[in-house]
Design brief:
There is one protein chain. This protein is an alpha+beta fold. The chain is built from 15 helices and 19 strands. Helix 7 (160-182) crosses helix 15.
């Protein structure tokens, strides 16, 4: 049987592993905390200065007796210069068993080559981890999407811009928390496993608790628990939470996603608009010099205030008839290929999404939704057909959804009962404890949910939600 090239590569690396062991060296290294970030070493370059670094070998070049390597950590890359006259004969024997992909720790002095490249002249090095598998053949250009998402560790090694995106996401979320904390919001945690799924119209994932012998659901939203905290007197609360919805996958949807949900007592949806403008323009400034961002080749200006457009007016403009006209809604839905065997409000909202959303470049607040679409929202005193709700659109994506929260327990029960009788979105139970909580008095409040993944997409110009989630859900590999 002919040996495959990849088999020989693996065999060669195993042989190098044994060669390192044979010299009494631990190929899996140990503590090396004296290393400085490579990005800082390069930035603070001083000719002849001492340098200690650790990272992964991503390139090897040999010129006569001089050996040059590229060493990369998560802050940058630097060239290494290794020569037997400097490190000694014993170290060079170990060096012969070093491969691209290995992790090294090095000590040495800084200099620049004739081409001006900052380099560490290595005086000593340690093997910190032996790589038993080669990196992708073109490690600097791993482009296979399936491999990138399934083996994210290779993606992070091969594509520095991916590392940069993920670090930026972390910085965005950290600053998000800080900004809210400065405004007296308290971060809380609510159950991820719930006996009654609620707070959103979505299909949950089911699981089972053996000891209690009961069915549980991964949460689709934390809303009803956060509102219980309003009742308890926690007047400004938020949660950056993981939600799970047993629905489709697309460039803008992942079944497991991150959302920030927030409630502020004695506010309303206008207060949530002001908060959203302030938060997102602040986060924009973290990595942008202006309030303009580029996304998918187009520029969007986040300078506040953002336009407010009424849902029903937008529908009328695009459809040419009233949202409440059931016959015309059904006719238009059929023409658009939208299923009509559902309640009017669901069909009409699908028509809205088909006709209106493609033109919502934004940023724009779409406000005042029909009451049928928003069972947890307070009616508008100016128009009882609608509720005080908005959705924020930027780059044709829904980024946020906010309400003036319904705090009337009698009307809340009536809306829940209507949903239950119609089995809307698979609703099977009324959360009685939530209604009991409201009956104790829930303060008027504004509430909002903002998609963390989608904000990260916008602020890093990432076209797919999978590009800002480290480990997106993938079909099991065979």
């Amino acid at each position: 049987m002919t040996e495959k090239p990849e088999d020989k590569l693996l065999a060669d690396r195993r042989a190098h592993l044994e060669a390192i062991k044979a010299r009494g060296v631990d190929p899996w290294g140990g503590r090396f905390e004296s290393a400085h970030p490579i990005g800082e070493i390069v930035k603070g370059y001083a000719e002849g200065g001492a340098a200690t670094a650790a990272g992964r070998i991503t390139g090897v070049r040999q010129f006569g007796k001089a050996n040059f390597l590229d060493l990369r950590d998560w802050t940058g890359k630097i060239q290494l210069y290794i020569k037997k006259d400097i490190v000694g004969e014993a170290a060079m024997e170990i060096y012969k068993a070093v491969d691209i992909g290995d992790l090294l720790g090095v000590n040495g002095r800084l200099f620049k080559t004739k081409t001006g490249e900052i380099t560490i002249e290595v005086k000593e090095f340690r093997v910190l981890a032996k790589s038993l598998r080669p990196l992708p053949e073109k490690w600097h250009g791993l482009t296979n999407v399936e491999t990138r998402y399934r083996q994210r560790y290779l993606d992070l090694i091969a594509n520095p811009e991916v590392m940069e995106t993920m670090v930026k996401r972390s910085q965005i979320v950290a600053e998000w928390r800080r900004w809210l904390s400065e405004r007296a919001f308290v971060e809380v945690e609510t159950p991820m496993m719930q006996s009654i799924p609620g707070g959103a119209a979505a299909k949950p994932f089911e699981t089972h608790h053996n000891a209690l012998d009961m069915k549980l659901y991964l949460r689709i939203a934390p809303e009803l628990y956060l509102k219980r905290l309003l009742v308890g007197g926690m007047e400004r609360v938020f949660e950056i939470n993981r939600n799970f919805r047993n629905e489709g996958i697309s460039p803008r949807h992942n079944p497991e996603f991150t959302m920030m949900e927030l409630y502020q007592a004695y506010s309303d949806y206008r207060g949530m608009m002001e908060l959203t403008e302030g938060l997102l323009t602040h986060l924009c400034a973290l990595h942008h010099t202006t309030k303009k961002i580029s996304f998918d080749g187009k520029e969007y200006d986040l300078t506040a205030p953002w336009p407010r457009r009424k849902y029903l007016e937008l529908f009328q403009e695009k459809a040419g008839f009233d949202w409440f006209d059931a016959a015309k809604v059904k006719e238009k839905a059929q023409a658009l290929g939208i299923g009509v065997g559902r309640p009017h409000e669901q069909v009409a909202n699908d028509v809205f999404e088909h006709l209106v959303e493609p033109d919502l470049g934004g940023p724009v607040f779409v406000i005042d939704y029909p009451v049928e679409l928003s069972p947890l929202t307070k009616r508008s005193p100016a128009d009882p057909r609608v509720v005080e709700r908005f959705e924020l659109y930027i780059a044709h994506m829904e980024i946020a959804n906010a309400y003036t929260e319904l705090n009337d327990p009698l009307e809340q029960r009536a809306r829940f009962e209507r949903q239950l009788s119609a089995k809307e979105e698979g609703m099977e139970w009324i959360d009685e404890d939530f209604l009991v909580a409201q009956e104790h008095g829930m303060p008027p409040a504004g509430g909002i949910g903002i998609g963390v993944d989608r904000v990260a997409m916008l602020l890093t110009d990432s076209r797919s939600i999978r590009d800002v989630i480290l480990f997106p859900l993938m079909r099991r590999s065979e």
